[in-house]
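Lab notes, practical 5.
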Amino acid sequence: MKPVKVGICGLGTVGGGTFNVLTRNAESIAARTGRPVIIEHIGARRDNPACDTTNTKISRDIFDVARDPEVDILVETIGGYDVAKELIMLAIDHGKHVVTANKALIAEHGNEIFQAAREKNVIVAYEAAVAGGIPVIKCLREGLSGNKINWLAGIINGTGNFILTEMGDKSRPFEDVLKEAQELGYAEADPTFDVEGIDACHKLTIMASIAFGIPLQFNKAYTEGISKVTPADIQYAEELGYRIKHLGIARHSEKGVELRVHPTLIPASRPMANINGVLNAVVINADAVGETMQVGPGAGAEPTASSVIADIVDIARTIESPATAPQPLGFGVDKLQDTEVLPIGETYSSAYLRIHADDHPGVMNAITRILSDNGINIDAMTQKAARESDGFADIVILTHKTREATLNHALSAIEQLDDVQGPVTRIRVEAMA
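Output from the prediction step:
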């Protein structure tokens, strides 16, 4: 059969991994697709010493790959927004199928990209954009297509998970562990996307769209990072039977869809609580199958390449009849629902509160009175010994489930008490059920 010819744009970590795995496993990939899959053209500003590209055409202008009439599938691994979008749209305009690992681009511009692909009758695949080597896109879009998805939750940024794991295991402050993560190559020089939850929110946006049949709506998701979590919070959570993880949570209810990324207390007995280091994990709760969990590496050259190549294989199998391929978001474009994405203030959850307060009688009564006046019930409450350094104590409270806006109002009142120092630390609590 006629071979499928691939063009790879970007030969860095993911592009280089894709080149090496596709070359190394060419025989088995051909057996799976029923035809050879060959690398026809590479577009890269510089060579990758880990890749033997001696017999492969290379261009320093990535757009040459998009224009090459010999290329059937363009693989985009350059990242970023503007150039990557221009490259993909040019490839689509030239009738090429596209595989991308670019979660930011799909989350923020996917609706437009998928529409362009539909008009040109080509496929845009993006398994590698979410959770690296974990095939969660195929799981949601195909494996669970007979289910109604109730909710999903994921540790979907390995950098954040590494930082929280190290903080908990070694009682180290956030800043110290972040510096180590940068030295180890887990975090970028500018770690904002990882530690402030933007990267995880991109991935959550994509998963939620497939799970609930809604358009991609990154701009409506709530995002909160981990930079304010302290070793003390992790210790207090452990004492209460919880672990703190940075979760992306999407939930479908009668009121709408919740899309939120934030630090979360989850029961220590739950499997998700024991996913440590740089691993990713996604739990999906659906009506027919119940609860499933996938765990694996969320980044890295060959784990991510595994997902890129899975998309290449899928396209190669349907390349002569692309209309038979799954819809990009699992649902037909005309079947996507205009379901409201709830603002964070309209969501409900339990909460962990840490209040730094003067250690004298009456403070706890004042705090509990404010919570009671706002209809917020307390599940557990304890006061830690006052610190010798400032004479203030930590009051730790677990609340029952309450409306976010109501709790915000109560916390504002607590922070105005003369005996309370600084803002109240609030971390949401999820039972994962």
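Observations recorded by the TA: The chain has a mean pLDDT of 95. The longest strand covers residues 242-252.
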